[in-house]
Design goal:
By secondary structure, the chain is mostly helical. It is built from 20 helices and four strands. Strands 1-2 form a two-stranded antiparallel sheet. It has a two-stranded antiparallel ribbon with strand order 3-4. It is elongated, with a radius of gyration of 26 Å.
C-alpha cells in the first residue's frame, strides 16, 4: 500500500515471474545441483578406468553446463529478485525480514560456488596424473556447494506454503524448519539428479559420435545414474504430497489446468504420470540396450522433465493461494491482520500512491479502477493473461452459444466481489469497504461497453494526494 504498483496488463505480473523462475529452476536443478555431480561421476569413471575418453566426455559436458549456468542461470537468478520485488515487494520484504541470515548465508555459499566452478573448469586440463583425484574431489566440493544453495532456498519456498510454528514464536529456526522443508528437499534433491541425467543424455547427441563405443557406454552410465535416483525421487514426491495442507490440495485441479478445465484434472494427472513412466522407460532402454537407442529417445526425457518441472512449479505457486505467505500475507500484498482496518477505512484511505482518496458520484468509475489497480492487478489484467473481462464474459455468457445471456449488473457483481473467496477459495477476500466495493463493481460493469487498459506506475508515474488526517477515535477523515 505504500509503494507504487508495477503492472503488465498484457502479460500478467505472475506470468512474468513464472517465465523467469521456471527457466532458472530448470537450469539450477538440471545443470548445477544435479549436473555437477553427474560430471564429477563421469570424471571419476575416467580416473578409475584410465580411459581418457571419459575425461574428455565429462569436460565437454561440463563446458555446456558451465556456459549455461554462468550466463542464463545467473541472469534469471537476478531476474527473480527483480521481478518479484516489482510485482509483490511486500512479500519479498516480509521474507527478507524473516530469512535475512538465510539469504546472507546463501549469498556467501553462492560466491563460493562461483569460485569453485571457475576453479573446476579452468583447472581441468592442468590437474592431470596424480592430481586428477584431487580434481574429482574439487568437483565433489562444488556439488556440495550447489546443493547447499538449493537447500537454503527450499526452506523459504516451504515457509511460503506453511510457516508452521513461526506464526507464534517468530524465530528464524522455526521459519526454516517448517513442516514442508524436509519433504520438499527430499523431493527436489533426487529430482535434480534425474533431470541432470535427462539433460546429459540429450547432450550426448552433440558431445559423442554416432555409433561409437563411447556413446553406448555413456548412455548406459547416464541411464544407470537416472534409474538410481528415480526411486528416491518418487519417495520424496510422495512424502512432499503428504504434507501439503488440505486446503492447498483442494486447489490442485485448478492449478493443474484452469477453472474452465478443472474437470480434466484427473486426466492431467494420468498424463503427467505417463510422462514420468516414459522417462523411466527410456532410461531402462538405455541401460539394457544402449547402442539401439534412437535419436528421438535421447531428447524425450529432457523435454518431458522440463514440462514436468514447469507444471510442478505452477502447481506449487498456485495452490498456496489466496496467500503469498500462508496465513500471513495475501496474494494481493496485504497482510491478513490488516484486513479489519482496511475494510473499515477503505483501501484508498491508506494507500500512499493513488489518484483518488475520496469517492464521489463524479469519480466513482475512476475510484473503482484505482481499487482494481491496488487490490487485483497482482493476479489479474483487464484483457491480457487472466483478464477480468474474459472472466466476466464467462460468468455471464450462454455456455451453449457463448452469447451474453444478460447484461452485466452492478449489484450482482458487487455481491460476487463480497463472496468470491467462498466460491473461489484461491481468491483473497475483498480488502476494501462497502463504498469501494460498489465503485469496483461499477467499473467492472463498464467494461462490457468500453475498453480499458491498466498501466503500471512504470508507465504512468505516481500520484500521491495528501494522506487523510486521523480523528481522535482512530478513524480516518477522508473528507478534504
Amino acid at each position: 500500500m505504500d509503494l507504487p504498483v508495477f503492472h503488465l496488463d498484457f502479460l500478467n505480473n505472475r506470468m512474468l515471474i513464472a517465465i523467469i523462475a521456471v527457466l532458472h529452476v530448470v537450469i539450477n536443478h538440471g545443470m548445477a545441483v544435479g549436473g555437477i555431480p553427474l560430471v564429477a561421476y563421469l570424471e571419476r569413471r575416467g580416473v578409475q578406468t584410465g580411459d581418457e575418453s571419459w575425461d574428455a566426455l565429462a569436460h565437454r559436458l561440463l563446458s555446456f553446463f558451465f556456459i549455461v549456468t554462468t550466463t542464463v542461470g545467473a541472469l534469471t537468478g537476478v531476474g527473480i529478485w527483480l521481478s518479484a520485488s516489482l510485482v509483490n515487494p511486500y512479500a519479498i520484504g516480509s521474507l527478507i525480514r524473516v530469512f535475512f541470515w538465510t539469504w546472507f548465508t546463501e549469498w556467501l555459499v553462492f560466491v563460493t560456488e562461483v569460485v569453485l566452478i571457475l576453479a573446476y573448469y579452468l583447472s581441468w586440463k592442468r590437474w592431470t596424473g596424480p592430481r586428477k583425484r584431487a580434481h574429482v574431489k574439487l568437483g565433489a566440493a562444488l556439488s556440495i556447494a550447489s546443493w547447499i544453495t538449493m537447500a537454503l532456498i527450499v526452506s523459504i519456498l516451504g515457509f511460503m506454503m506453511d510457516p508452521g510454528s513461526w506464526r507464534t514464536d517468530r524465530t528464524l529456526f522455526s521459519g526454516m524448519f517448517n513442516p514442508i522443508y524436509l519433504p520438499q528437499l527430499a523431493f527436489r534433491t533426487p529430482l535434480a539428479m534425474v533431470m541432470a541425467g535427462a539433460f546429459g543424455l540429450a547432450a550426448l547427441l552433440w558431445v559423442t559420435e554416432r555409433g561409437s563405443a563411447l556413446r553406448a557406454q555413456a548412455v548406459r552410465s547416464i541411464a544407470h545414474w537416472s534409474l538410481f535416483w528415480t526411486l528416491p525421487c518418487v519417495a520424496g514426491g510422495w512424502w512432499y504430497a503428504r504434507v501439503v495442507p488440505a486446503a492447498m490440495q483442494a486447489n490442485i485441479p485448478v492449478a493443474l489446468l484452469t477453472q474452465m478445465l478443472e474437470g480434466w484434472a484427473r486426466t492431467a494427472l494420468w498424463v503427467l504420470g505417463g510422462a514420468c513412466i516414459a522417462i523411466a522407460l527410456v532410461m531402462a532402454w538405455g541401460s539394457a540396450r544402449p547402442a539401439s537407442l534412437r535419436r528421438w529417445a535421447f531428447v524425450v526425457p529432457a523435454v518431458l522433465t522440463v514440462l514436468l518441472l514447469g507444471t510442478f512449479e505452477r502447481v506449487r505457486e498456485f495452490v498456496r493461494k489466496p496467500y503469498a505467505i500462508a496465513g500471513y500475507l495475501y496474494a494481493n500484498g496485504l497482510r491478513e491482520e490488516d484486513y479489519p482496518l482496511l475494510q473499515r477505512d477503505g483501501l484508498l484511505a491508506h494507500a500512499t500512491y493513488t489518484a483518488v482518496r475520496r469517492i464521489t458520484p463524479e469519480n466513482e468509475l475512476e475510484a473503482g479502477r484505482e481499487v482494481f489497480n491496488l487490490a487485483c492487478t497482482r493476479c489479474h489484467t483487464v484483457d491480457g493473461v487472466n483478464g477480468i473481462r474474459g472472466l466476466l464474459e464467462g460468468m455471464y455468457s450462454n455456455r451453449d452459444s457463448w452469447d451474453y445471456a444478460e447484461p452485466w449488473r452492478r449489484d450482482a457483481i458487487a455481491s460476487y466481489i463480497g463472496a468470491m473467496h467462498n466460491a473461489r477459495p484461491f481468491m483473497p477476500p475483498f480488502p476494501g469497504n462497502e463504498q469501494e466495493k460498489q465503485a469496483l463493481a461499477a467499473w467492472l460493469e463498464s467494461l462490457q461497453t468500453q475498453r480499458d487498459v491498466i498501466e503500471g506506475a512504470q508507465v504512468t508515474g505516481v500520484a500521491a494526494p495528501p494522506r487523510p488526517k486521523r480523528r481522535s477515535d482512530g478513524t480516518l477523515a477522508v473528507d478534504p
